[in-house]
């Protein structure tokens, strides 16, 4: 499988060198040469070759050593490989993942001549965010809005069906919460907390009114429907 | 690992990628091929026509950028290009039928065969090892046979026959491989191949020819021809071929010597000496049997080799003798659709300022020959002089010839003239940008609509006439109010040709100084050329020379004064070897010369000459004066005004700058006498050399510290005088240092191993952040070999909450070197050709790293991934709160952050970022073989409405709510009333 150097090259060469060759396997990700575009393959960026139209490449005159093989493709993702060029002009190819230890070598040998598989095509773009009613309904803000809206509308009916004692308790609780909230927003944490703790002994007219008014307002709406 | 990385990125929500609709709106991309190598006929541009009936033509050329390209003659677009590696320079190319063939590398080590119309690579074959390559000079080293097999002449003495399956059929190597015999060209006839050599003999050359068998490569005959060829231009012998006959002709002792080529090489040379000649030249028609010979007065004569072997003169160009009114003539040959040859003479009339062409068609007019002449308005003050021409002709009717002339000019412009009409121009010098600066445009000023002294009646009348527009204005206002779209960070800039800045300052001028003596102003929003100016060569114009851009400064911006100005400092090297310095001062908006009153209207920029090569040039911030330092440490100032001198004297104690001289880096200050005084020197050992010094990227600093998760603060080390020094040592290591320019103190130093004896380090430094990229080949003790990206952040003192106020500390403060740093190394999958950080208006937005990758991409790397404090373990809550991400050795390339997306931006050597008016957004300019500009928002566009903000929807909802209130209010009121009555 190895292409030995031509005789006159051997005369000139001082170091034993081997030609490393391989081919690309076209697949769905990258069906042909047009899709691939001009692409170089390299061993440690020192020895390199272009992939030609029939999908093959030959890296000429590679001396003995351990190399990391990479495909410098613009649009496609390929795996790196570890290539060992051995003294007896043998070439061993092994899988290799970047940023892992190069030694010891992986036990599994890959075929030689090398076979390259385009893994995937680089996705440079994201989908533009467009107006979509379903995605809008899924957003938490909208969901919260809908729930509160539903509660506001449904509350009068709930209140109606409650017995008066419970209603009283509930109103008290609401007033307490409202007070705490207003205290919190005005920055008065202490009184807010104490309001929460004490259980709101002194219900003020303001908050309860504020809570009470929306139901009365909304009351009429369902009736009209 | 990679998956993890990607998942991490996605989780962090770091991605703010382009959508497909943004392409060409937020960015632009211009591809170039480079300036043609027009000096050698083996690489110069040439027309080629493919096809029998419906023909398609292409202009092929090899360029200085080491690109082999095919240009479309119709519109000047690039049909294809192949970018060769740096260590694989193109030696020659030729074409035939559907293929173009190139030889590249030392001695022509590699043969490549391309599809001539689309550039697909068919064959890539190594002919000899590149390290065994010898420097060669060739004129025609490739032959393509009729059945598309290739004969190559490599290394000056080896001929190889390569079949269409890329196998070597035979190889012939000259016995005498010494440097004395150098084979330069191949000739093909049906009988044999001939290899022509110039053998160096005492004081001159002897012609040596070897005939080879076409099938086996066996030597049929080898012969020396007693000749005295001297080493001067135009000595290369021309091998004429016409069907079966071939003849080699050369200039010797005022005559034209020639002999017929036959497999036995038994012809005796004959000499033609009817008049005195001085040169023979191949105009690209040698394979059709034509050559042009110049008489001693430069009158051109056309010679033809007939099919029967006779060789003689067929034409003389009238009036082609050299004279002072015209430039020297250029000659080129070409063909028409039918394959008939044409020879063109082209000259520029210095008196009338236009170019004239004469096309000689030997076959027309019943074989008597026809000459067509015309003139066209070539703009020599914009494009310099015509370096080389190539032609292609059409013969629509018997007595009519239309020529297409392709020009390469000294400023790197390519033009195609069809008859006297300019079809297109390509400014290929834009592929040689050495320096670039962004310049802001002025804000549009609304002009006054009336005079200040108008009378009452006038005003009333004006108001009435203005009121006519009111209904239209109201309608427009309502429409805009309801639906108006707002400019967003990804909206297009209006291209109306005006020079006003747009809403967000995306439209700026990019000043670009090229290596071909031309200065360009590009529109950063479209890439269009706003203006361009040639740099006058001054006294060197007579003998020839070139400007090498050295420094470019924007001395006055639109906010500081009117008009905005810039200064370009160049090193001018004339052809006699003298290098001096020239300073050009110009208006950045229109290119007008601001140097002196007399030259303002001149089409070229005229500089101010300074003797000697400037060692350094600087812009003094307060006076906005440019200072240059010559080798005698004399300071030259621009503008030369007394006011400037006074200001400089006052500011002298603060003026410090580092200058590199040989192996010494020295810091200078300016004395009150305005002379330079050395205050420190940093001499490297003889085993170490300075590669580069990189100034820090300046910009406003928004925060002086970093608050950590535990509420402690790390104060940034913000010494404004730091610069990066890259060095290479003979021991095989490379040094990266940070040096204080005033004191010469080294505040940081790192050493990394060299890669195969070379240091290819890219670094950038901004604020307190240094990033560098290198190759580490050591893997036996380390873990793996490959590229590394190192991120270093410098902080004041020795730990948290240790503040030394480094930003306004004196260089002589004891705390100058009281700092600590965090450092982290990542494995980076790719080589990097240029590096920069983004800059924004106020420096609040985080800085992304922008790198140009070897795979022709511009990539953004988020700052968060390069935080050197990324913990190498599980995150604590404090670290989570701070927004740190766990360390991962591999820094993957996220394609959604590839700024150049599917476009190729090749050989990028210069990356520059510029702030816009939007704090979130930075402009990035990449220049190399190609130009690319895009907008980057490292922290997303937080200061402007999102592109998908839907105003119609918002207005609709508000309107609907308003309507609902209007409808329900009476209902509620009625209901309340009813409740009062009936409750």
From TrEMBL, chain A:
Q: Where is the signal peptide?
A: 1-17
| Family matches, as Pfam families | EMC7_beta-sandw
Q: How does it sit in the membrane?
A: Single-pass membrane protein
Where do the ER membrane protein complex subunit 7 beta-sandwich domain residues begin and end?
A: 38-144
GO CC term, one of those recorded? EMC complex
Q: Which InterPro entries match?
A: Beta_sandwich_EMC7, EMC7
Domain of life of the organism encoding this protein: Eukaryota
Keywords, ordered alphabetically:
Membrane, Signal, Transmembrane, Transmembrane helix
What subcellular compartments does it reside in?
Answer: Membrane
Please list where the region (Disordered) is annotated. 178-225
TM segments?
Answer: 141-159
Q: What name appears for this protein in its UniProt entry?
A: ER membrane protein complex subunit 7 beta-sandwich domain-containing protein
Q: Which organism is it from?
A: Cylindrobasidium torrendii FP15055 ss-10
Record lineage: Eukaryota, Fungi, Dikarya, Basidiomycota, Agaricomycotina
TrEMBL record, chain B:
Q: Which GO terms describe its cellular component?
A: EMC complex
Q: Which InterPro entries match?
A: Beta-prop_EMC1_1st, EMC1, EMC1_C, Quinoprotein_ADH-like_sf, WD40/YVTN_repeat-like_dom_sf
Keywords (alphabetical) are: Endoplasmic reticulum, Glycoprotein, Membrane, Signal, Transmembrane, Transmembrane helix
TM segment ranges: 952-972
Subcellular location field: Endoplasmic reticulum membrane
List, alphabetically, the SUPFAM superfamilies matched.
Quinoprotein alcohol dehydrogenase-like
> What are the EMC1 first beta-propeller domain coordinates in residue numbering?
18-428
Q: How does it sit in the membrane?
A: Single-pass type I membrane protein
Q: From the UniProt annotation, give the residues forming the signal peptide.
A: 1-17
**Where is the ER membrane protein complex subunit 1 C-terminal domain positioned along the sequence?**
766-981
Query: GO BP, one example?
Result: protein folding in endoplasmic reticulum
What family, per the record? Belongs to the EMC1 family.
Subunit structure of this chain's protein: Component of the ER membrane protein complex (EMC).
Report the protein name in the record: ER membrane protein complex subunit 1
State the species of origin.
Cylindrobasidium torrendii FP15055 ss-10
